Amino acid sequence: MENRRVKKQTCGTICLKYLLFLFNILFWLAGGAVLAVGVWTLTEKSDYISLLNSSFYSASAYILIAAGVIVIVTGMIGCCATLKEMRSLLIVYLILLLCIFLLEIVAGLLAYIKYQECFPLCFQLDEELRQNLKVNMQQKYQQPGEESVTQAVDRLQQEFMCCGSNNYTDWKDSVWIQRADNARLVPDSCCKTPDDLCGIRDHPSNIYNVEGGCIMKLESFTLSQLYILGAVGTGIAFLQLVGMMFTCCLHHSLKEEPY
């Protein structure tokens, strides 16, 4: 009977090791996905976000990167602790999981409270972002020393298939458009088929005439990034609960198992 009891405990420990190792692989992959989204946002879309003159949206990319790195490092610690059956490292791993989980809860609560506080000002904030984008387009496009803004605006209009901040009529007040030697009515990047001087016609058949303009497309993109952050955070939080349960079970099993 004693031998059968010991064998059962040993098999249970092996199963727990495999389950916890599988969890760490999933946890590590989740961290890699979060890190990849953050780096992609920062490298490919940061110039769009910079047009809004708002640190709120760019901060989301840095949060994704930091969260991804923390999750990857924690997953590596968990793999080492599981494979080497180090009870002390398992405790460190459990504490890290618990800290990340608590930070996610605190961050979620603060975001909810902040949203409730600023809800009456949401329309005012949206209008401020619209004005920032409009000013950047009208005052800085094709101006000396503002090459980065010019490139960002052209990429924005082509990639999101839009023209102007609110609509294509915003360009009529542009410093560049109002130049005497400029025959264009809108930038060439507004054209559905970009070509040199194609911006001399602002007919909807020639240019993008999207309701809400580029600001709506840009806001949709940045909100989608925040949704991704929330969805991945929720998934990781669920994984953490499972991981903490497996870690506690494995630690207890290693403690009770006879050598």
UniProtKB/TrEMBL annotation:
GO biological process: cell migration
CDD domains: CD151_like_LEL
Origin: domain of life: Eukaryota
GO cellular component: plasma membrane
Family: Belongs to the tetraspanin (TM4SF) family.
PANTHER family: CD151 ANTIGEN, TETRASPANIN
Full protein name: Tetraspanin
Species of provenance: Cynoglossus semilaevis
